[in-house]
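How it folds:
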Amino acid sequence: MIANRLIKSIFLMSLFACAALTTTASDFYEIRNGVQNSQHFWKNDRVGNQYLFFLGNSVIDATGLKNKNLRYSYRMIQGIKKHFPNAKPNEVRQPYPGGSWFSLYRSSRGQPVFGEKICSGHLAVLDFTADDRAVPINEAKLNIEAMLRQVTLYRSTHSTILVFTLTPDMLKAYKAGNIPEYIKVSEQIADHYGIPTLNLAKYAANKIIAGEISFKDFSADGINPTDAGAKIYAEATDKFMDALLTAFPVPDKVTRKKLPKPLFPETNDQGRIVAYENAVVKRRGSWQPGQESPIKPFRHLLVSEKAGDSLTLKFKGSEIGILDVVEKDSGNYEYSIDGAPFKKLPVPQGTQKATMRPVSLANGLDRTAEHTLILKNAGGKIQLGGFLLNGNVEDAYAGMNTLQKIDAIYAAMDPIKYTPPADRFKYIPKAMKTLKEGGEMRMVLLGDSIMGNTTSSSFELLMMRRYPKCKIKKIASLRSSTGCNWYQHENRVEHYVFRHKPDLLLIGGISNGQDAEVVRSVVKQVRAKMPELEIILITPVFGTPTCSHIKNFTKEIDTSKPNFRWGMQKIAAEEKCAFFDITSPWWSYIEDTGKTYGWFMGDAVHANKRGCQIIGRLLDMWFAE
């Protein structure tokens, strides 16, 4: 009897354990494969870059709510904190219009012009219901699938959640006992990719049908919920998050996703925003690149004020369009595709203030054939942000090695003029001897992602061209958003410096907390074990315009009050380190080009390929005799 009970108990425990490891479902949500990679990050990552990106429409931005904490995105954040108290989830909401169609382009792998920070974290929450309601279902399904694939192509460890919010048409379908076609096809796609779905539309419709609330009280405009409606969304979201975050145990490591073949054969997942400055875009006329945009999130714009100015883009793909800024007095375009007669693209009627305009010029093209778009200024001022292309353009640097590529990038820039200080080599005699006389130099770069930009400049290739007898072994010892205030603790210099056996150590970046003394702490620890190691301290470059070295920039180091550049200079002298105030020639160059800062930016913080070349060329000049 006891044995039978024991066997039965073990059987039931095993059954419950198995159930915990399977996906769960409700009439308003499906867990499927869950968000296990995100759970790993929430439990183990302490950097703080745990971004949740909410892409969609006005609903995610709490439009019309008096209590903004009722928005479902906020409830998701609270659900994560409930189950992972030490996590630091950051909510990023992107409520631009355009639905899944425009989001396909917005979420592409790299945004050279349209400066959004999209899906660079590890969880994307997508809600396109409201803006997709006027899109034919055969188009919407391709956009949704392509968007989901784009997110995974951008980062294979991403988790994704699809959310559906209520619209009048959906409520009508539910009242008739039907599943809205949009939700039906979206769930089909989610099944194919194993993605969780949260059907807030169904949950709210059940409440309305049951008479617990009227649709008028639920939403004043039929799309955005009132506070009463948002409470219903919040209630459903809380239940979903509890189920989502308990359905699977936290994995020991993340798993990279492998995309299956598209569910729909005609799906094209190559949507991207093509930068207008790409070399394959031929400009004729008086175009002005790198101009400041009147609205965010454009980093820069290509401006023409003369009728007849033209652009030619050759591409392969299924769809081509443009992304520009229109204002009340903006001019019009004319465009031709594959030699067809020119068509006009006028400014939308009623345009008053500066507005972003994404527009498709042609779709359904043969994606395997080469196409040609000619875009002309038909009169007035036009401000182009980029091209919307579901396809590919020719790589302007195809066939080039790295040195040839960075030379080609720099050749298209204004030349840098810089005269370095005469006494800069005082504390690095061994390094200079190796450069001139030959041998191998192990050069370690310590810092953050800005030092990663320094690495990406490939400056060591320029130096080896200048000093052909020397072989430079560049070692990037970096941690994102991390400075010497972190490296100084717990003997971290052992892992980040000593194990690389450096001959020369470069310390820089923007993440030292504006405290030069933490740099001194690292220098002293390094010198305690490697007293002869030569070190160069480098002042900050790049970052946001609010960073002190930009906001309070002075060409000469300000010695009238404490600041980081002055602190680095003093510590370099006192600790016998070489010192490179790269901030001065770097920002002076950007100001003198006549182009906006965004022309040199890859995102809100970091350099693009042009910005990296400013860093690399200045380093090469600094090391030149």
